[in-house]
Give the backbone structure.
Amino acid sequence: MKKLQLKKSLLKMAVALFAVSLFSFQQANAQSNLVTVKSGKSYDATVSSIKKGVAGAGMMVLAEINHGKILSMTGLSINGESLFIGNPTVGKQAFSDNMAVGLAIPLRLNVYEENGTTYINYFTPSSELGNFKGDKVKMIGQEMDKKIAMLTAMATK
Amino acid sequence: MKFNTKKILITISLLILAAISPNVFVAAQAGMAEFSTLVIQFMLPSVALIFFLLLLAKFLKFRDITRLAINGILAGIIATVALEIFRESGFRLGTMPGDLPRLMGVLMLNQFASGPDIWSDLAGWTYHFWNGAAFGLIFSLLLGQGKIWYGLVYGLVIGIGLMVSPVVK
């Protein structure tokens, strides 16, 4: 009887350990897709550099969400803004390949200030678009990885 | 007692029109339509019609209506200033969850994503004070100058109405 209980307990522990390791793996995987770049410029200068850089890279800022201004209505004072960037021609190719990519396109760049330092963070386009079927979509994701990396490197210098 | 049909019609119309402005935000928060759409389709025409009816009342020499309406509008604006002393200080002390006039401004101009600016603030505050004026107009037309405790009960009813409305949720 005691042996049976011991076996049950061991089995439960094994299941729990497996669940924890699976969760940790997913967390690590999600973290590895998140890129954070520290900026050498002020918050305003970084946002301005991204906007100029986006135009220079043949893309455009399609939408902006100003977290700082929105949250000022709740009494919280922060600097933070998300920029949704893309290119309609590239978007046409991606949507032609898979209509569901609207969840990941346009790409989102987030700029924020923490303890006086400005950061840009984003999920790599290849990881985001990699969730969707379609060779073209995956290829666009990989191309965008390079473009976004170059853009953020330039904007933070 | 002699009833003046025109006078009654103008008064009832003013009451209905004054009730539109405070209710468009509630309707928008209940998900009935976008606030900006309701403002254009209902609130702005209601404001224009209120002023048209007040001019008509003046033209028809219904001095009691114009006097009550103007007194009510002014009293409503003054009451909103009094409300603001508590609301704004409460917000700055962190006891209020949000800055409602600023929120109403960004929703009114459909610019939530970019956040408030001078124009949305102006729109939101104007709407806020107009609501005060509309509540004052309703009170004045229904109860006249009334007694102080009438006003207290009326204010409480409005406050409770706001607390149980979709605005708070």
In short: The helical segments of chain B are 5-29, 35-59, 63-92, 100-108, 118-143, 148-164. The two ends of chain B are 47 Å apart (CA to CA). Residues 63-92 of chain B form the longest helix (30 residues). The interface with chain A takes residues 91-92, 94, 96-99, 102-103, 106, 112-117 of chain B (CB under 8 Å).
